[in-house]
Specification:
Blueprint: H1 2-9, H2 11-24, H3 33-56, H4 62-99, H5 114-162, H6 170-198, E1 206-209, H7 210-229, E2 235-240, E3 246-249, H8 251-267, E4 274-281, E5 288-293, H9 329-340, E6 343-347, E7 354-359
Parallel strand pairs: 2-4
Antiparallel strand pairs: 1-3, 4-5, 5-7, 6-7
Helix pairs in contact: 3-4, 4-5, 5-6, 6-9, 7-8, 8-9
């Protein structure tokens, strides 16, 4: 039995089965609604002809034979009409349920004709709508949760100042400022992600020198990270080979990618750790390969796709880090890389996490 099951699941068996079906499909009487209606006419005419022949060879009157032929034709017509109308009525009922917000309804598909194809397409549409509705609900819940946290922290600080529990000293105001900056970063990331997904952010690729560009990006990131995370212990290292490497991409979008990757790497770095940004030439002219590596705990293989989803967060020993960010940085990075036609993912590393992105460049770009 095991060998038979393996044979049925074999790709060659599946391809052969599909090929055989394509060959025999024109001979299938139920291959289409048109064929079903054609067979209805043939059967009705055949029944009438058979009964008339029986009338000539018997004493049954022609009027009786005509009545029997009409009744038989009506019964056959009713059977065919019922079989054609049932899936349409089922899809109509399911569509009305979906209009009320019930996306769990599916239609039973037992036909091989156009109505069967329509039923399969309807079920795929229902599944897509159900997934979109689930993502919408999750997005609203996640955004509400993420906005609630900095707002609650800021409110607590201000209430303590107003009630006289704490003074409006520099330390208290610095706490309020950090919560405000966190709220601002979240709103900015949501706006960026929305614009990227809607396709309203046009690319403006151009050629540029990689080393001075990345040095400026890391310098800006260093200033921002020190204010946002107080991680003055983490060092940023730039490694560009060759020194005169050029790339062809949109510097603004690439800035978003590198900044978000460095931001995440610093968050998960150990004390006195180091974050390394490497840049190497791609396969085509103007192509670029960038790697951002930290010395933290790394990302387990089963979570390497999750971290690039909206609000997706990795866990360490099953626990989400408290300073895990909003879960939007890597999602924005993926969208920006996709706009370039490149790829981004977690690469294998002996220590820490190494994220690699590749940009295809432009073989026709000029120096």
């Amino acid at each position: 039995m095991t060998r038979v099951a393996d044979l049925v699941r074999h790709p060659l068996w599946r391809r052969g089965r599909h090929l055989l079906w394509r060959i025999l499909r024109p001979f299938d009487p139920m291959r289409s609604v048109k064929a079903a209606l054609g067979w209805l006419v043939i059967i009705s005419v055949g029944i009438t002809t058979l009964l008339i022949l029986m009338a000539y060879r018997s004493d049954i009157e022609l009027q009786v034979i005509a009545m029997i032929a009409i009744i038989a034709s009506l019964l056959v017509t009713q059977f065919v009409a019922h079989s054609l109308a049932t899936p349409v009525l089922e899809m109509t009922s399911a569509a009305r349920a979906m209009a009320r917000g019930d996306y769990d309804r599916r239609v039973h598909v037992a036909r091989r004709d156009e109505l069967g194809d329509l039923g399969h397409a309807f079920n795929r549409m229902a599944a897509d709508l159900q997934a979109a509705d689930r993502q919408r609900r999750e997005l609203i819940a996640n955004v509400s949760h993420e906005l609630r946290t900095p707002i609650a922290g800021l409110r607590a600080v201000l209430e303590n100042v107003v009630d006289g529990v704490s003074d409006a000293d520099p330390d208290t105001m610095a706490t309020a400022l950090r919560q405000t900056e966190r709220l601002g970063r979240l709103v900015a990331q949501l706006l960026d992600l929305s614009r990227l997904e809607d396709g309203v952010v046009p690319l403006q690729p151009r050629g540029f020198q990689v080393e001075p560009y990345l040095a400026a990006v890391l310098n800006d990131a260093t200033v921002a990270l020190k204010r946002g995370h107080a991680r003055t212990d983490v060092k940023l290292r730039l490694d560009v080979v060759p020194g005169g490497l050029r790339a062809h991409a949109d510097p603004e979008r690439l800035d978003q990618v590198v900044t978000n990757l460095v931001d995440n790497a610093v968050k998960h770095s150990p004390r006195n750790g180091q974050v390394t940004v490497r840049a190497r030439p791609g396969q085509a002219y103007g192509g670029l390969v960038i790697e951002v590596q930290d010395e933290g705990p790394g990302i387990p293989p089963e979570q390497r796709e999750l971290v690039f989803e909206r609000f997706g967060r990795g866990t360490i020993d099953g626990v989400t880090p408290r300073d895990g960010g909003t879960g939007l940085g890597l999602a924005i990075a993926r969208w920006a890389v996709d706009l370039h036609g490149g790829t981004i993912g977690v690469a294998e590393s002996r220590r820490g996490c190494r994220i690699r992105l590749t940009l295809p460049g432009n073989a026709k770009a000029n120096n």
